[in-house]
Amino acid sequence: MKFRDYHSQAPSELELAPMIDVVFLLLIFFLVTWQFARFERTMDIAVPAAEEVDDTTRTVNEIIINVQEDGTVLLNSRKYTQEELFSRLSTIAAVDENQAVILRGDAKADFQHIIDVLDTIKRSGIWNVAFAATKPEE
What is the pTM of this model? Predict the structure, then answer.
């Protein structure tokens, strides 16, 4: 009976091509997700603090509308008037009736500015609205 000699086989080499593919895919994934998260973080808005803040999971296609202290409305780092915002949101609501919107109002903003944006969102046909808040610092 002849046994196989395991020591006579050449050792397998590390394949670099699949590893490089995986690294590039991870790099692309992180760059794309960073790009979407950047719109929310670049605004100079201090959202109000609340004791009961839910850390809910975020949806993929949610819209983040920022209302600055002076009443300026920003969507994806672009300023919108109420009419432009209504037109944009109406188009989006026609495509997706369950569109999620997060309204980030500055803590020092006049409440009327936030209500005006909320009215515009409601007029456009979007009902799924959440308000952004942070937990108070201890």
Answer: 0.62
